[in-house]
Please model this.
Amino acid sequence: MQLVTEDNITDLAVERWATAREPRTAELMTALVRHLHDFAREVRLTEAEWMAAIQWLTRTGQISDEKREEFILASDVLGLSMLVVQMNHQLDAKATPATVLGPFHIDGSPELDYAADMSDGVPGATLYLHGTVTDLDGKPVGGAVLDVWQADTEGAYESQIADIDEARLRAKYTTREDGSYCVRTIAPKGYTIPMDGPIGELIGRTEISHFRPAHIHFLINVPGYEPLITHLFQEGAEYLDSDVVFGTKQELVIPFEPRDPGATPDGGTSSEPWLEGRYDFVLQPQG
Ligand SMILES: [Fe+2]
Model:
């Protein structure tokens, strides 16, 4: 029998976890054990600090539910989410870059027609976002579904609003045969990540800016292409260079140009001034 010492405990734990029946599980778990032990040794982790970390993880789980994803937020602010995105989406330079999903996506958004208004009475400046979805060679991708979601001008997502029973500032738009799409909505504002939970508590002990620049989220999943999860950011918005979840990429920053009352991109007319954003999404073929 081999007795445990501070020197051999890592090897013993690695040996046990290496027995995982699935090779990838064995690889993941043995590496996790090695890195966790190295971390504890490097910082000379105290029992009080270990307990504080356990309680923090417990609170992170307890505050999470089907609408609040505090662990995703933890991963986002640590830069882990964006690292995983970068490693898994090494796309062609012409393809639209991917960013984090974030904690606020809700499945099953209503399907809206070209240029239908997904803001549905939520106050804000009218914004038309339009352009095309194509492949790397510029061939239009018709029938592509754009799942779109965003915060309101107070920075609130639907999942943060209590007692709401219909979709708010989220919708699915389908491209026309020529690959064109048109989203009508309101211009979002930058927002703070939720600061009333364990993540906020930790961020509050640092000088980290807890804001995200104004953006709209897109998820485009078309058979035959790499699923694209990304955002479009408003040029000139605050916090572009300090995004708390590391999600901002230069290629995804577009102007929201002010337009006078008159013709809108869908062929209609607006009696009010409106904003226009143009972006052409380029999908990477699968494989
Ligand atoms: Fe967001």
User: Anything to note?
Assistant: The CA atoms of residues 220 and 228 lie 5 Å apart. The mean pLDDT is 95. Residues 1-45 form one domain.
